[in-house]
Specification:
185 residues; mainly alpha; 53% helix; globular
Amino acid sequence: MKEINRCAWCLSDPLYIEYHDNEWGTPLHNDQKLIELLILEGFQAGLSWITILRKRQNFRKAFDNFNVDKMTGYGKEKVRSLLGDEGIIRNRLKIEASIKNAAASIRIIEEFGSFDRYIWQFVNHKPIMHKFKNASEVPAKTSISDAMSKDLKKRGFSFVGSTICYAFMQAAGMVNDHISGCWKY
């Protein structure tokens, strides 16, 4: 049986391999999933993505499947409940930012018709195809992620620095950063 070539970052854990093979870098155009991904990238700040992947189902349950209409109604009691939920990252700033980001997402949807239309404008609505041969060539951020970060912050988002935005762009398939030898490239 022939072994499949994959990006090296995913080889340490079967959950990472499944995520790499089935999600990471695949163009995503569902508003709810895009917002979920951006919020989870914010929770990932300072942690590893595998930590978030292992808790993703718990996050979905705790945050009403990232339903932004429900999330904007979260009050102090819900925040207290989330801070006590061992299944998620219990960081007050990140929890409060996720609620704030849900409200900002609604404003974007109202203005642009969809979050998808807004977020994909940063790459002219088509994935940027990179041709990196190894992981050391992949940037942590770009001028596009800088612009996305700046605009999201202007619109009221938190935990959306340029590095977080670039990781989001990679995961959502806005940029193809699979190494050129990877089967997903």
